[in-house]
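STRUCTURE:
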């Protein structure tokens, strides 16, 4: 059950008219009262021939209009929508009436046996929700005595109602979520059948930030995506603010959003702090294959979270979101949609009460910056997606341990999209390795080896669809003498925490063999250059300060 944001009203008539009207998208069906301050309150929904919206609004207004104009409160009503979660059963009118009374009682707006309390109504105009409209003047002219934390008390009561009625236990927020789109923006997005403008802007700004180390870079990256960035400066030249907008249609004005309106971590101070931390990325370390390097870096991410303080872990998770943004930015087109969906969902998991300080996760953010300038191909993408799954899995566990319900849910939803992307990229290399699977005797040998070195995971690994390819990788590693078939204590711990230990072990071995092949190729190239180097005159080859013995070979 969801208590949507509570809003205030200065007049009853407009809100009552909306509640009993057709709705902005014609979604209101059979609007009627399920409860009110008196049993026989005017109901213009069920008895339109006897009562009107104006009559009901006038009855609600009586305690307020009984006061002198200078005594009337500026805010006269609270509007409280309450909705069941998707998938919940349909409540009866009597059940909704009970919900309304319990919520108002928890908030101190309704007291049993008090006949002088505020006037209120509960209107149902759809199967899954009601709207409460409550006056903030009691019938004796006083303001209702609400407890200090009345909103929290109402939400706690909703938790109890969910248990009593057998409804889903909805995850509660912690105030760190991005703002929801407003009504106009929401309905416009519905008509256009695409995400709301602020949601699309939030994704675009996050991706552009990952690829930027200065305000100029940020503006340039946004321009490529068709997003306008208006940078306002003080007379001193310092930045006073940045607002963002989509490129408007011809003849229309752009609709500007501040970063803080898009998300808490996109406020101007947060953007400038992040860009300042990224200044050293330009011209810094540039690995030959940043995708494979990022995979190796992220391979130990679960272990990193285990040993991090809460502040460090929060920053590591925020940096993981940047790496996921970067992966989406330059990943192969075949998996772009799944990765884009993953980034949109994981965005909620990157924010908690412990805010990112852009320190602990600097290495991850630098690799994210490098990824945005290099398109990923081949096994490196698959290897990175494999460890990304385990990293997000570790983030979900961290949020679960800290009771961050919304963040944990977002991380687990992200896994659905990442697994789908991994399956697409892994299909071809897995098929190639499977075709090279060793004969049954060798296969049996490696099954025995797994049971000996990872007994707690052996059944899970050897029955996994990855096993034929993993057996091939183990066999090739052993035949090459690379020493890649040893499992230490840390390896076993990593496999035990992995989302798919067979996949993690396979790509670790595959990557180690790739590294060995690269070292051998580099060594061979170096030797080749040495043997083909022009001969050096004896005089120039002498070591300074040492006189050669001319009689040495006589």
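SEQUENCE:
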């Amino acid at each position: 059950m969801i208590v949507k944001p509570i809003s205030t009203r200065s007049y009853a008539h407009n809100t009552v008219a909306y509640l009993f009207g057709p709705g902005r998208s014609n979604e209101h069906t059979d609007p009627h009262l399920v409860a009110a301050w008196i049993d026989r309150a005017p109901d213009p929904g069920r008895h339109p021939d006897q009562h009107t919206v104006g009559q009901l609004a006038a009855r609600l207004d009586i305690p307020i209009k009984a006061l002198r104009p200078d005594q009337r409160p500026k805010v006269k009503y609270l509007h409280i929508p309450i909705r069941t979660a998707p998938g919940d059963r349909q409540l009866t009118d009597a059940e909704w009436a009970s919900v309304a009374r319990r919520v108002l009682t928890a908030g101190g707006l309704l007291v049993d046996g008090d006949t002088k309390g505020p006037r209120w109504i509960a209107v149902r105009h759809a199967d899954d929700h009601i709207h409460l409209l409550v006056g903030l003047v009691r019938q004796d002219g006083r303001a209702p005595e609400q407890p200090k934390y009345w909103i929290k008390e109402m939400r706690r009561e909703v938790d109890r109602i969910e248990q009593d009625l057998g409804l889903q236990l909805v995850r509660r927020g912690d105030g760190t979520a991005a703002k929801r789109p407003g009504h106009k923006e929401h309905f416009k997005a519905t008509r256009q059948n695409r995400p709301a403008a602020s949601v699309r802007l939030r994704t675009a700004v996050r991706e552009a930030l990952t690829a930027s180390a200065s305000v100029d870079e940020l503006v340039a990256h946004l321009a490529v995506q068709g997003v306008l960035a208006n940078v306002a400066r003080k007379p001193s030249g310092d930045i006073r603010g940045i607002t963002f907008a989509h490129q408007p249609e011809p003849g229309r004005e752009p609709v500007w959003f501040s970063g803080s309106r898009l998300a808490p971590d996109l406020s101007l101070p947060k953007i400038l702090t992040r860009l300042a931390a990224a200044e050293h990325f330009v011209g810094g370390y540039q690995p030959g294959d940043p995708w494979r390097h990022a995979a190796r870096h992220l391979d130990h991410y679960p272990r990193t979270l285990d040993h991090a303080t809460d502040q460090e872990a929060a920053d590591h998770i925020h940096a993981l979101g940047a790496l996921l943004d970067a992966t989406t930015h330059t990943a192969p087109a075949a998996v772009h949609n799944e990765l884009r969906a993953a980034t949109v969902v994981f965005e909620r998991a990157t924010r908690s009460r412990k805010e990112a300080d852009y320190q602990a996760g600097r290495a991850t953010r630098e690799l994210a910056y490098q990824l945005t300038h290099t398109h990923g191909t081949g096994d490196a993408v698959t290897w990175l997606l494999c460890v990304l799954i385990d990293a997000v899995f570790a983030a979900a566990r961290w949020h679960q341990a800290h009771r961050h319900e919304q963040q944990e849910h977002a991380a687990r939803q992200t896994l659905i999209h990442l697994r789908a992307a991994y399956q697409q990229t892994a299909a071809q290399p897995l098929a190639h390795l499977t075709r090279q699977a060793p004969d049954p005797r060798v296969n049996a040998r490696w099954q025995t080896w797994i049971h000996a070195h990872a007994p707690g995971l052996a059944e899970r690994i050897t029955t996994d669809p990855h096993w034929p390819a993993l057996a091939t990788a183990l066999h090739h590693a052993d035949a090459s003498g690379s020493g890649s078939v040893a499992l230490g204590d840390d390896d076993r711990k990593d496999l035990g925490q992995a989302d798919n230990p067979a996949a993690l072990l396979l790509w670790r071995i595959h990557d180690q063999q790739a590294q060995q092949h690269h070292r051998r190729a580099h060594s061979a190239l170096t030797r080749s250059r040495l043997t083909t180097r022009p001969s050096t005159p004896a005089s120039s080859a002498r070591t300074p300060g040492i006189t050669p013995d001319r009689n040495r070979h006589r």
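REMARK: Residues 312 and 360 are 5 Å apart (CA to CA).
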